[in-house]
Structures are given as structure tokens and as C-alpha cells.
Design goal:
This protein is of the alpha+beta class. It has helices spanning about 105-110, 125-140, 145-170, 180-190, 195-205, 210-220, 225-240, 245-250, 260-270, 275, and strands at about 1-5, 25-35, 40-45, 50-55, 55-60, 65-70, 75, 85, 95-100, 120. The chain is about 45% helix and about 20% strand. The strands form 2 sheets. A 6-stranded antiparallel β-sheet has the order 1-2-9-4-7-10, covered by helices on one side. It has a 4-stranded antiparallel β-sheet with strand order 3-8-5-6, with no helix packed on it. Helix 2 runs antiparallel to helix 3, helix 4 (about 180-190) runs antiparallel to helix 5 (about 195-205) and helix 5 (about 195-205) crosses helix 6 (about 210-220). The chain is globular.
Amino acid sequence: MIYNSAVIKEFDTNTGNQENVCPYFINSCGYIRFQSKNVSIHRARVDYYLIYLVNGAGYYRINGKLYTAGSGSVVIYQPHEDQDYYYLGEDNTELYWIHFTGNSVAQLIEGLELTNGNVFHVGIKTEIIQLFEKIISEIHIKNPRFHTLCISYLIKLLTIISRELYAGKDGARPSKKSDIGQCILKMQMEYQYDHPVSYYAKITNLSVCRFIRKFKETMNISPIKYIEKIRMDKSKELLTNTDLTIYEISEVVGYNDPFYFSKVFKRNTGLSPTAYRKLR
């Protein structure tokens, strides 16, 4: 099991934390990958619980009925609602989750029409994944006003989920092709590895040429440039928020040669890594 949890306020994972003073409050957020063991949970928390599955499946018992939610599904539990669900190790399930509360959440959820059920399907959306990652990162680093920024990410996350749901109901074309979305997810999670383009083309069952063309049509950037962008964004985050050396950062983001890393970084930002760090 791979687990990355970021906690602001949570005394008991089975009951959670309820805030009645703040309009919105995030208790915890994280990512988890189940690799071998089966996991079963049965509890009722006092806060909201949102799950976003990015791989595999989850099995949720809701009002006496068992629902199977696959990749791209969102599961939302209301406060005090019975949470009875499990994951099978053989499914290699990966998911993001967030617990949140506040005296204005009910109104927001209702306004976004996310109260009509528990399980929704929005597909794999890069923007949703990035928002989860930003919330996790902000909670870990805890820069000034980090929680205010996290709340803005949470509201945006819920809004995007609502938009995707109702765009689908209106028959509109999804903003990202699902197969390209799977590749984007892989790139976000494996950007530090030097996978050839053929590795991603295979995921979509397309030839390399067709994959590159389809990716550029969807993202307005080539696959190689997109991975480079992810690496540069991560590099800027590490340069700003950590004391890792340039050599260490280059290794973390996937460059074995720190001199080449510095060259790529300057080409993208106009500054060397050292000069960029001095701006913080």
C-alpha cells in the first residue's frame, strides 16, 4: 500500500471533525494505492467525505445496495451517513480523498447539485488530480494562508465535478478524451521516469503517430513537452519550498544530469535554478 496523507485537524479517523464556525474547513486530504491486501471500512463520520477513483475499483454499500465504482468515479458521503465499503488488492485501486466540513458546505453541495446520490462518474480529469495534489502539497508545506488557498482549491474541485456531470447530461462532448486522460494520469504520476512515447501510445491502443496527433489535439502540446512542463512545475515547487540542492532536485524530477536539467529549466523559465530560488 502506498499512502500519502495530509492532515490539518483530525482526532479520530473513524469519527472525523465537525466545524460550525468556519464556512469551509478541510480536515484531511490524501492519496492511496492498494497493492495486495483487501481493505474494508465501516464507520460514520461527522464531516463530508469525497473519494475520487483514478484506477481500479471500489465497492460501496449504500442504502442496502452494493455499488461498484470504477476509474473516474466520485463517491460523496454526507455527515453522519453510514460508510460501508471495501477495496480488493487484486484491483490495484488508486484514489484521492478529502474530508471537509463547515457551516456553508451543505449550501454549496446543494447548489452544485451533488446531493442527488452518492456515486457519480466524471472520468479521469487532469484538473481534478492536480487540485488534489495542490491541496496535499499545501497542507504538508503549510505556508502562510495555506488553508485559505486549499479552500479555494476545494471549491474549484467540487465545481469542476458538478460541471462535468451536467455537461455529460446535456450531451456535450467531454473536455478530455478518456484514453488521453489515462495517459495524462500516468504522466502526472510517473513524470520522473523516462518512458518513451510508445509507452503511452500503447495505453490508448494507438500508433505512436496517431497518439501524438490526438494528444496535441486534446492538450495543445506534445506528449514530451507536457511531461517536461510537469517536471518544471515540480522543480519550481521544490526550489521554492525546500532546501534540496539543484543536483537533488534534478534527480527527483527525472534528470540524471544536473547541467542538462539547468539548461532545460532556463529554457522554460528564463532563469537558472539558482536564480529562480533567490526569488523566493
